[in-house]
Design brief:
This protein is mainly alpha-helical and about 190 residues long. The chain contains 8 helices and no strands.
């Protein structure tokens, strides 16, 4: 992935640039992230890649108290915002008041499995929020790896640790998420 990554990891971004300027400098990578996010979760939403990215841009620019010191913080924030927007879109799509349980039968019904289950996306979202409370660094690795699509070495460069350390954090995060997703809520 990183062959066409437009940002040089060694650059120092804490140079007083506004979030708008930083967002603009990382636009191509953020657009690829948005496309991956929509593709991974079934592109059956009524939102386009560009619209998702522009919604994230509005979230970044409308919150004046947010400053991003480095690309990691912007990419993690953008990945989290994209995840939230996709989860919200899935919930809206499945909402009963919008006819989410109503399925029109057509000749080609094979695409229904492409639509992510809103309940499953909601559970994953809640598990990620719980992981963030347990260990914010592990949650950041999940955001950067899964939602941003970065490699272990790219995440390691961002966090100033080795790629192997990031891989261990990834494995630990996966185990914690598995435990959070499989525990019985009624137990």
């Amino acid at each position: 992935m990183s062959d066409d990554f437009s940002f040089k990891w060694g650059d120092d971004l804490d140079d007083g640039r506004s979030p708008e300027e930083l967002f603009s400098s990382l636009y191509a990578e953020l657009h690829r992230m948005a496309h991956r996010e929509l593709t991974r979760n079934g592109a059956k939403f009524s939102i386009s890649t560009t619209a998702l990215l522009h919604d994230v841009y509005l979230r970044v620019t409308n919150r004046k108290e947010i400053r991003f010191a480095d690309p990691r913080s912007l990419l993690a924030y953008a990945g989290r915002a994209m995840r939230n927007l996709v989860v919200d879109a899935a919930r809206r799509r499945r909402a009963l008041k919008r006819g989410g349980e109503f399925i029109l039968t057509q000749l080609d019904t094979g695409n229904e499995q492409d639509v992510p289950d809103a309940q499953e996306l909601g559970r994953i979202h809640e598990a990620l929020q719980a992981l963030e409370l347990i260990d914010p660094q592990l949650a950041e690795v999940v955001d950067l790896r899964y939602f941003c699509g970065l490699s272990f070495s790219e995440i390691g460069a961002l966090q100033e640790v080795s790629g192997r350390t990031v891989q261990r954090h990834w494995e630990k995060a996966r185990l914690l998420l598995f435990n959070l997703l499989t525990k019985d809520p009624f137990a």
